[in-house]
Write a structure and sequence with these properties.
There is one protein chain. The protein is of the alpha/beta class. It folds into two domains: about 5-25 and about 285-410, Lyase, Ornithine Decarboxylase, Chain A, domain 1 (Beta Barrel), CATH 2.40.37.10; about 25-285, Alanine racemase (TIM Barrel, Alpha-Beta Barrel), CATH 3.20.20. About 30% of the residues lie in helices and about 25% in strands. It has twelve helices and 22 strands. Strand 5 (about 70-75), helix 4 and strand 6 (about 95) form a beta-alpha-beta unit. Helix 2 runs parallel beside helix 9 (about 250-270). Bound molecules: ligand LLP. Ligand LLP binds near residues 56, 235, 237, 282 and 283. Its cofactor is pyridoxal 5'-phosphate.
């Protein structure tokens, strides 16, 4: 019997110190994943780059950790770029994504010399050319292409080429025209291509198939357009452990397959292997985080179900209600006690769909217990909302048994701060 110790910190003590709901992030876990990427990808293969997809979790403190760990960063909005800038993140290691970047976002990127802008469509190309010419700069870009590979469901399925809001279809008439156009832009340097096939992927087939298509494209462009691809960004998507039916693979499981396929395919067509970029988000932070809640109301419907309600919910973790995502959880102050029943964990929002976990085995449970939902480090804080005017929880970073507040809890005053 005891308390949940998460990477060296007593979670029940953290709940007492900072209150609940509370996001806890382990800096040691994040540093470990970054080290794994350095050792098994960056140091193993030359001409490679790894960027952290900051949409998974971003604060200034996170940007500083990523910088220290030697990775670059993928941003998808002015807000993420601003956070990186404000944290002193090196702009040459930024990859700027987005299917509808606004003129002021592009301006911010160009002015600050971000390393790469991933261009999603031809409209954006014109916008970048205009803005870069205004500042008399040359913007380094990659084209995002949709390779017609969809790995969202764990197995790859070929989709209709155009059926995605992201990227330029791999269609000769479209992509060749785009490349020719970029080559003629005075203020744009086209370095290569990007693809991203999906998220929470546990197999390699999708990456392998996409790379084969990309290398065919590289060959075609070299022969027909005279364009030599210098960089290939293979996106993120590496899956993690949420519950016992899914495990997190070593980064090498993905990157070795990516690199081997690319070497083979390039060799087949006598092409130089381009610089390779990877951009995992979830894989770096997902399991670094847990969320602590206090159990409040417990309602037993005899013969039907027991609901335990917590002091957060879909506002701090929208993934179960958005994607039917499944999470595991433990009663943090009753570790080691035998499970005696199944409960349903409900959030406090005015929505029947605000259920965090449908069936959770728990020991004898009572109001005041601390529930720790596991693997909430990715796409929780970053997707949180103020629905029902619930203030967002605080975020605490832990490392080697010490803890520090990195985002303070929102107040009721924050709920009305922008109102006139
Ligand atoms: N690169 C690009 C271009 C992306 O669009 C994404 C994710 C990533 C990298 C990072 O993917 P990751 O390694 O984290 O799987 N909100 C959803 C996930 C959306 C992912 C969108 N793009 C969720 O909570 O599952």
């Amino acid at each position: 019997m005891g308390n949940l110790i998460f990477y060296g910190s007593d979670t029940v003590e953290l709940a007492k110190k900072y209150g609940t709901p509370l996001y806890i992030m382990s800096e040691d876990y994040i540093a470990d994943r970054c080290r794994e990427i350095r050792e098994n990808f960056l140091e193993k293969y030359d001409n490679t780059m790894a960027v952290y997809a900051s949409k998974a979790f971003l604060t200034r403190e996170m940007a500083k950790i990523v910088k220290r760990e030697g990775l670059g960063m993928d941003v998808v909005s002015g807000g993420e770029l601003y956070t990186a800038l404000n944290a002193g993140f090196p702009m040459d290691k930024i990859v700027f994504h987005g299917n509808n970047k606004l003129a002021d976002e592009i301006e911010m990127a160009v002015k600050n010399d971000v390393g790469r802008i991933v261009v999603d469509n031809i409209y954006e190309l014109d916008l970048i050319e205009d803005i870069a010419s205004k500042y008399n700069k040359k913007a380094n870009i990659l084209f995002r292409v949709s390779p017609g590979v969809d790995a969202h469901t764990h197995k790859y399925i070929q989709t209709g080429q155009v059926d995605s809001k992201f990227g330029i279809p791999l269609n000769e008439n479209i992509i060749h025209v785009a490349v020719r156009k970029a080559m003629n832009c005075k203020h744009i340097e086209l370095s290569g291509f990007h693809f991203h096939i999906g998220s929470q992927i546990h197999e390699n087939e999708g990456y392998v198939l996409a790379i084969k298509k990309m290398v065919e494209l590289m060959k075609e462009l070299k022969d027909k357009v005279g364009f030599v691809t210098k960089e290939l960004n293979t996106g993120g998507g590496y899956g993690i452990h949420y519950r016992d039916d899914e495990n997190r693979k070593n980064v090498a499981f993905f990157t070795d397959a990516i690199m081997n396929t690319l070497e083979e395919e390039c060799c087949k067509y006598s092409l130089h292997r381009p610089l390779v970029i990877i951009e995992p988000g979830r894989w770096i932070v997902g399991e670094a985080g847990i969320t602590l809640y206090t159990v409040g109301a417990i309602k037993e419907i005899p013969g039907v179900r027991t609901y335990i309600s917590v002091d957060g919910g879909m506002t701090d973790n929208p993934r179960p209600s958005l994607y039917q995502a499944k999470y595991d959880a433990v009663i943090a102050n009753k570790i080691g006690e035998k499970p005696v029943k199944k409960v349903t964990v409900a959030g406090k929002c005015c929505e029947s769909g605000d259920i965090l976990i449908w069936d959770l085995e728990v020991p004898e449970i009572e109001s005041g217990d601390i529930l720790a939902v596991l693997a909430t480090g990715a796409y929780n804080y970053s997707m949180s909302s103020n629905y029902n005017r619930n203030p967002r929880p605080a975020v605490v970073m832990i490392s080697k048994g010490s803890d520090r507040l990195i985002v303070k809890r929102e107040s009721y005053e924050d709920m009305i701060r922008n109102e006139i």
